[in-house]
Design a protein that fits this description.
The protein has about 800 residues and is α+β, with helices and mostly antiparallel strands. The protein has five domains: about 5-145, PAS domain (Beta-Lactamase); about 165-270, PAS domain (Beta-Lactamase), CATH 3.30.450.20; about 300-395, Beta-Lactamase (2-Layer Sandwich); about 420-645, Heat Shock Protein 90 (2-Layer Sandwich); about 670-795, Rossmann fold, CATH 3.40.50. Its EC number is 2.7.13.3.
Amino acid sequence: MNDGDPNDLAAMFWRDALEEPANASMLDEASCRQLADNIPTLCWIADGDGYITWYNRRWYDYTGTTPEQMKGWGWQSVHDPEVLPAVMERWTAAIGTGKAFEMTFPLRGADGQYRPFQTRICPMRSADGLVARWFGANAEVSDQIRAAQLLEEANERFQAAVRATHGVLWTNTPEGEMRGEQSGWAHLTGQSYDEYQGYGWADAVHPEDAQPTIKAWNEAVRSRSTFKFEHRVRRHDGVWRRFSIRAIPVIDNADAIREWVGVHTDITEQRDVEDALRAMNETLESRVSEVAADLDRVWRNASDIFVVIDGEGLLHRVNPATTAILGWSEAELVGRSVFDLIHPEDVPLSLGALEHARTQVLPTFENRYRTKDGGLRTISWVAAPEGEWIYAYGRDVSAERAQQADLAVAQEALRQSQKMEAIGQLTGGVAHDFNNLLTVIRSAVDLLRLPDLSEEKRGRYINAISDTADRAAKLTGQLLAFARRQALNAETLDVGRSISAIGEVIGTLIGSRIRYSTTLPDAACHIFADSNQFDTAIVNMVANARDAMQSGGVLTITVAPVSSIPALRSHPEVHGEFVAISISDTGTGIPADQVERVFEPFFTTKGVGKGTGLGLSQVFGFAKQSGGEVLVKSEVGVGTTFTLYLPHVEGVDRHGAGEANMSPLPDGHATCVLVVEDNADVGEFATRSLGELGYHSVLAPNAEQALAELDRGGRRFDIIFSDVVMPGMSGIDLAREIRDRYPDLPIVLTSGYSHVLAQNGTHGFELLHKPYSVDQLSRTLWKVLEQGRRGSAVS
């Protein structure tokens, strides 16, 4: 037993008190139990079968239980359920063998916390040698376990610290000799146990360093001072490594050295770096001079601008290229603010760039500088701050920007050339369709001139003229929308609706010899693309299909959602959500050796004068520009299918058709309209129509006359109705002028087509498209008048 162990003391007490007759005569059992209640150890007594009959008070205080709860086998309730099976196994085995045993396990306290207890259980035998009782003692060992853990953790941290410094730990005797097992040293040097004993370790030290090391070591041992040294050690693989050594004496309570503890730390790389730095420093001055000379040559000979400015934008240094590009001399530039030279339109952006460059690197930035001869140069800058200065590097990109502008013009011209080819394809069909429409109108007019015409026939002929005019207006609108010149403007499109919208154009293009059908999905398929370019691409592919079916055939347009673009033209398959628009014909087909060339600009298989070769190149360019692809499959004598793949996007159908407004036409109620129309026939029709609807109207043949009418009394007019395209001042300029003079006077514009409106919108004015019906004219004027009245009421 261990001296002072509570379990050992308790066990001796019970053995002596209960088993020895002499002691039993001195203390009865009650006295023994009273004494046991006051010791810190948890004690208990069980009969020979393991049935516990008594616990000391300390047991109940710790567990928070009662004698009734603990009697017999109740003690199991305060054991950890996960450990209890092992305890029961050991306890049962001890009862069977009658042998004492020791075990550490957790017991639950009154606070619900489990704490470790070291338990010793020993048998008390009767005179016949049988186990009469079992005595158990449980001593809490939380502190001991925690102390052991802390010691182990401290040792692990110390070992880790040594390893982190590439160190080797060793110990020596108070006399300074290496004795005993030194695993770290043996691993480092490869020396055996016998080889490094005493001063044998010095055999692993470099011969030049061994004696100096021993001398310094002996002096440290003699003076009991910290040992610091540096020497080379031969590693187990024969490589010499440089080490820093530090050792200290461990002093005991009697002020005697108990041992020396030392660490060898590998500093080979550190010393190599220091040696390299020394070598570099030896040549640094010469290198600095060389670099300075190089920088000066770059400064003087560079073709790009180098300047040094302060945080306010004042120039402090400029290189010769700066003076050459801008035309100002160095004397004229130094001390001058860069903002004196920057184009006024670029000053706000340049101020922001300077603010950025004061504290961090400035990304590529462009602005325009005035030259001494009055010209402008576009400079692309990068800059970085260094102390109070900003170092800026500028490249003259004026020529590049001019080339880009020329390229943009050329690309726009190419797009228009491609579009004009498509328009040219339409010309013959358009003339044919308009002749048919005019034939219907002319015939209906001739029939209306017949005498004694019944009202039923008169109404039928009038309706025929009206319906035919609507068809002509629809076809004209589609052609104008298709032909308009405007910048690319991507928007969300419903592909099926867009295909349907140009159905009249497609029918006109292919003629009556070719049967035409479409297959559209039930759900809308949306793309994000320029609508005009999309229509142009469809027309170009349809025209190509038509030319392949000179003897007639079938044209099919299919729209469907797909989950990938197949591999084509050396590109791998692309997965994602796409919309596939396929245009199939039953024409002559394309030879296999020409399929890959059909998208090349100016490549055509048609005869001279029958094609420029730009149509399909427009399709290819549009597909790439919109993030998609175009695929062609063809078989000679069978037909060709062009499939345009475009990325699918989420969209909202913005073309929801409203129900026809069948309410009666609103009465003009003597509302006065200023009609501005340069075409006399159209102007007369408009004023007569307005008169029939109850409006008063005044006709002005141009914008100047309209302004004169307003000057004579602008308040007499309730609304302005003006054409857009007129000689002199346009309708848009007129509307702006009127809006400035009379902000509350409503304005409606009308036009069959205007490139200004197509490019820039209606500028906030209501637009009525020509040709318009009396119904459309009346309802548009009334809608704008009502909007004006509501606005006045709110204000």
